[in-house]
Specification:
Layout lengths: L10 H15 L11 H7 L4 H13 L3 E2 L7 E2 L6 E5 L4 E5 L3 H7 L7 E5 L5 E5 L3 E5 L1
Parallel strand pairs: 3-7
Antiparallel strand pairs: 1-2, 4-5, 5-6
Helix pairs in contact: 1-3, 2-3
Pfam family, one: GntR
Protein name: GntR family transcriptional regulator
InterPro entries: Bact_HTH_transcr_reg, Tscrpt_reg_HTH_GntR, WH-like_DNA-bd_sf, WH_DNA-bd_sf
């Protein structure tokens, strides 16, 4: 794919689309290292700022992992667990607090399910690893 500078879509979002397509197609499989910011900037003739903005969006979507001092990698897709829902349970999706994100070991950008049980308890579950199923 090519960046279209005349398009209405910002160039950094076009780069997000390109990289997301490569991740979804398996061209960049889970665990693989993304090309460097410099390589992406040169290849797509973008500024480093545009590349950083694109990578930040992919990070917020939970598709990549960035660790200071290490290369950026495609995030591994964890196995999903099925969580049964009972009659009367209510589910809301939201972004976790920083404390919840840390305690659940979640990447930045992944939402949680807040399940209010009929009995009054509330479960906060990482949406990236849980499938909710009505019984």
């Amino acid at each position: 794919m090519v960046i279209d500078r005349d398009a209405d879509r910002p160039v950094h979002k076009q780069l997000v689309d390109i990289l997301r397509d490569q991740i979804d197609s398996g061209a960049l499989p889970p665990g693989s290292v993304l090309p460097s910011e410099i390589y992406l900037a040169q290849t797509y003739e973008l500024s480093k700022t545009a590349v950083r903005r694109a990578l930040e969006l992919l990070l917020n979507e939970g598709l990549i992992t960035k660790t200071k001092g290490k290369p950026t990698t495609v995030r591994e897709r964890p196995q999903r667990k099925v969580m049964p829902l009972e009659p009367g349970d209510e589910v809301n999706a939201r972004m976790p607090t920083e404390a919840e994100r840390r305690s659940l070991g979640m990447p930045v950008g992944e939402p949680v399910f807040e399940v209010s049980r009929h009995g009054g308890t509330v479960d906060v579950l990482p949406a990236g690893t849980i499938t909710l199923r009505a019984s």
